[in-house]
Write a structure and sequence with these properties.
single chain; mainly alpha; Recoverin, domain 1; 3 domains; two-stranded antiparallel sheet; 4% strand
Length: 277
């Protein structure tokens, strides 16, 4: 068969040693060289990677086969041995179809998040996982994600639950399964991809805090400052919504937020109120 690499051969590569060095170590080092070469020739942001991927995809089928991937590596000055190429293909090809999609390409090139970013992602996940089941489901977010203005909901194309499931499925990456729920691994994978295009730790943390109302600093002083700011904002926006304090409109606002009609606001109802305001 010469130098032809079959799909079967591609996935027979194991974790054995090659000249005394574990193959997975060689793959990791080769991948690091690949990333450094890409950074040198135009960055590793999401947009630049998409352009690079298209250039590598010689036949235009939106996937890289073994030959295209080998040529792509060569274009960046990397000429791996056949066994290394097989192992690197296996590392990138997550769905085992013998080719590399753009999403798989992006996943293979991304850098892992540093400790600060990982901690922020884990904190956001914990705040969303309200029943502490280890999985974020529709029931966890149904009181904090407002679908009332969603066009599909307004025109009865999708139910509230379907819209919430679609929202959760957005966090499924190449390893996700679109099952309407989010595991910690899926959440971490999603934000690892996002992290690739954000160079500043401060900006990443601020983005997470803003998106999920989850402060990085849990100290009493920080919490008091956050509460004070929120109270001022809520008061200001309620006054605006009620035309500067009209009693009838204030009562209507309260009743709108008291979704279970109990006469008092639960923590979920307060969360929903803040999100809407």
């Amino acid at each position: 068969m010469g130098n032809v690499i079959t799909t079967r051969a591609l996935y027979s590569v194991g974790s054995w040693a090659f000249y005394g060095v574990p193959l997975e170590v060689m793959v990791r080092e080769l991948n690091i060289k690949f990333k450094l070469a890409i950074q040198t020739k135009g960055g590793i942001g999401v947009r630049s990677l998409k352009h690079i991927f298209r250039r590598m995809d010689a036949n235009g089928n939106k996937a890289l086969d073994v030959s295209e991937f080998e040529q792509a590596l060569g274009a960046f000055g990397l000429f791996p041995k056949k066994v290394e190429l097989q192992a690197l293909m296996k590392y990138y090809d997550l769905n085992k179809d013998g080719s590399i999609s753009y999403e798989e390409f992006l996943t293979g090139l991304r850098d892992e998040m540093n400790e600060r970013r990982r901690n922020m992602v884990m904190k956001a996940f914990a705040s969303l996982d309200r029943d502490q089941s280890g999985v974020i489901t529709v029931s966890d977010i149904q009181n904090i994600y407002d679908v009332s203005q969603n066009p599909d909901f307004l025109e009865s194309r999708l139910s509230k639950e379907q819209i919430l499931e679609n929202f959760l499925n957005q966090f499924d990456g190449a390893r996700g399964n679109n099952d309407g729920q989010i595991t910690m691994d899926e959440f971490m994978d999603y934000y690892t991809d996002v992290s690739c295009s954000i160079s500043s730790d401060e900006y990443f943390v601020q983005m997470m805090e803003s998106a999920w109302q989850c402060p990085e600093d849990d100290s009493d002083k920080a919490a008091q400052q956050a509460v004070s700011y929120l109270c001022k904002e809520v008061r200001s926006r309620l006054l605006t919504a009620s035309r500067n304090g009209d009693d009838v409109l204030i009562k209507k606002c309260y009743n709108d937020f008291d979704t279970n009609g109990s006469g008092s606001l639960t923590i979920d109802e307060v969360t929903n109120m803040v999100a809407k305001l």
